[in-house]
Amino acid sequence: MGNQTLITEFVFLGFSNHPNLQILFFLVFLVIYTITLLGNMLILTLVRNDPTLHTPMYFFLSNLSFLDICYISTTVPVMLVNFFQHRKTISYSGCMAQLFFLITCAGTECVLLAVMAYDRYVAICKPLSYSSIMNTRLCVQLAGFAWLCGLVNSLVHTLLTSAIVMYKSNQLSHFFCDVPLLLKLSCSDTFVNEAVLHLASALIGLSPCLFTVVSYGYIISAILKIRSAMGRFKAFSTCTSHLIVVIIFYATSNFNYNRPSSGYSLDIDTLVSSLYCIVTPMLNPVIYSLRNKEVK
What transmembrane ranges does the database entry give (predicted)? Predict the structure, then answer.
């Protein structure tokens, strides 16, 4: 025990095996980060200033936009700085902070997308009662519930991970801190951590996903009962943007966390995680801007 040293920093290996492309990587991710910030801030400004957008759908969309700004800001700024460093590092405290905000945003987005699916279900399946059901108080409560789930889940994971003090190495085959990666480096027993991780995946990841699938099952069933083709198209067009966002989010997250741990190079791992953590927040405002007449 006396020969073991306390880890004070972690070294990111992601993007480190292409030293000649660091400037190109910096420019690409700087553009993506700028587009994400501008797109989501534009939606926040529009929803705040345009009275016609003061509806439950756009209230949740503004929460999603703010969430995406926080989400991408947990990883990209550190990564941009590291492109100019020979050793791409992050301090131990910085890693724990990044872990906390990353898990908070990911968990909140899972629940928030399910909340948005419920909003679309009420709008299409119970249109006459929509205003009374989706009142301001319920919208605030649902959004608050999503953020609370993300915060509690993140706090538990961060505390459990920070309790692991012994590591085999300080090298992370990634460009950000994540729980599974840190658990692999641990020399201590991680049974509790892994059990909580699986439980959280079921409660925060799988449950909202199933809820969203069931909601869209009822939505599609209700749409098919509409007699006119124009009516069906109009009803379905109100939820296509959300459906696209849900598919992209869960497709990238599932491929990122549920693919086999072996058989993929560092470049593939980095690319997949970039799609999940960086590209998805950029696409959300683009999808809503292009699909919704109100936003246009």
Answer: 23-47, 59-84, 96-118, 138-160, 195-221, 233-251, 271-290
Three-state helix/strand/coil letters over the chain:
CCCCCCCCEEEECCCCCCHHHHHHHHHHHHHHHHHHHHHHHHHHHHHHHCHHHCCHHHHHHHHHHHHHHHHHHCCHHHHHHHCCCCCCEEEHHHHHHHHHHHHHHHHHHHHHHHHHHHHHHHHHHCHHHHHHHCCHHHHHHHHHHHHHHHHHHHHHHHHHHHCCCCECCCEECCCCCCHHHHHHHECCCCHHHHHHHHHHHHHHHHHHHHHHHHHHHHHHHHHHCCCCHHHHHHHHHCCHHHHHHHHHHHHHHHHHHHCCCCCCCHHHHHHHHHHHHHHHHHHHHHHHHHHCCCCC
Spans of all domains in the chain: 9-291
b/e per residue, 183-197, with b = 16+ CB within 10 A? bebeeeebeebeebb
pLDDT of residue 264: 55
Q: Does domain 9-291 have CATH number 1.20.1070.10?
A: yes
The band of 295, judged by pLDDT with boundaries at 50, 70 and 90, is confident
Cα angle: 286, vertex 34, 105; to 5 degrees: 70
pLDDT tens-digit map of 63-105? 999 999 999 999 999 999 999 998 999 999 999 999 999 999 9
Quote the pTM value: 0.91
Summary mean pLDDT of the chain: 88
